[in-house]
Amino acid sequence: LPDEGTQGPAEALEQQELQREVWQAVGELSDKLRPVVVLADLQGLSYGEIAKILGCPVGTVKSRLFNARSQLREKLRERLPLETVRTWPGAPSGPSPEVAGMGGSAV
Fold first, then answer.
1. Cβ-proximal residues to 44 (8 Å cutoff; 6+ apart), any chain
2. Tens digits of per-residue pLDDT, 12-70?
3. What does the alpha-carbon distance between residue 7 and residue 94 come to, in Å, rounded to a whole number?
4. 3-state SS of 56-98?
5. Which residue from 1, 6, 34, 66 lies 20 to 30 Å from 48 (Cα-Cα)?
6. Cα gap 76→69, rounded to integer Å
7. How far is CA 15 from CA 2, 4, 61, 69, 82, in A?
8. Is the pLDDT of residue 81 over 90?
9. Total-model pTM
10. Three-state SS for 20?
11. C-alpha 102: how far from chain center
């Protein structure tokens, strides 16, 4: 997210709204998915670090992170402009934001 110090008032307000929407969507994730996305995407920890903290295998961390990001994209797609959702970590590239099989089953 851009530095708020270099933005005008309109951009700063838009940035605050984006942050509010992202945090609200993160808060709606399940208790299994929320910590993984917070630790990976917001705190920048590695899969190994997250696995150690949560006491689960690295494969479980990767699966939960994939599911969390998928659910966040769906939640944010309903609330934000398409360009913003496409820049979320792990977002699919290409002309269409739709990804087959993005059901919300947590591991």
1. none
2. 888 888 888 888 999 999 999 999 999 999 899 999 999 999 999 999 999 999 999 99
3. 29
4. CCHHHHHHHHHHHHHHHHHHHHCCCCHHHHHCCCCCCCCCCCC
5. 1
6. 10
7. 8, 8, 29, 20, 15
8. no
9. 0.65
10. helix
11. 14
